[in-house]
């Protein structure tokens, strides 16, 4: 398979990942989060990321075996020599856009987690200041306890 065809396949993988990230973003915007859906999306994302990583590792190894330097400069030179520099540059743009989307989704998830933690903390605090004991009977207030002593 030519480098150009390989890069096009990688662009398709990244496009699939971007689609998953857009589904995740949409699910995160919902008022009520569907945990099962987000778990499925996360599993699919992990699989897609693993595929992308495997391809990138193979591409980089071939690039170096062919005598090109490691990294982006060598990849750009290899793509230029194979007459597919435009595909390589489009792939890089796709990857950057997808990385930004993934980071934004991560921020949204982090914000939701923080919000949930604040709510849990408030509930714990409120339950610690309950007027009723575990038996359902009213707890004496501290001022009542100190006046009895």
Give a quick summary of the entry:
By secondary structure, the protein is an all-alpha fold.
Q: Which residues sit in consecutive blocks of at least 5 with pLDDT less than 50? A: none
The third-level CATH topology is Methane Monooxygenase Hydroxylase, Chain G, domain 1
Q: State the helicity in percent bands.
A: over 70%
Shape: rod-shaped
Tell me the number of strands.
0
Q: Which structural category do the helix and sheet elements fall into?
A: mainly alpha
Number of domains: 1
Question: Which terms summarize this structure?
Answer:
149 residues, mainly alpha, Methane Monooxygenase Hydroxylase, Chain G, domain 1, rod-shaped
How is this fold's topology laid out?
Layout: H1 3-29, H2 35-65, H3 72-81, H4 85-128, H5 142-148
Helix pairs in contact: 1-2, 1-4, 3-4
Structure report:
- The structure is a single chain.
- This protein is mainly α.
- It has one domain (3-115): Up-down Bundle (Methane Monooxygenase Hydroxylase, Chain G, domain 1).
- 80% of the residues lie in helices and 0% in strands.
- The chain has five helices and no strands.
- Helix 1 (3-29) runs parallel beside helix 4.
- The longest helix is centred in the last third of the chain and has 44 residues, at 85-128.
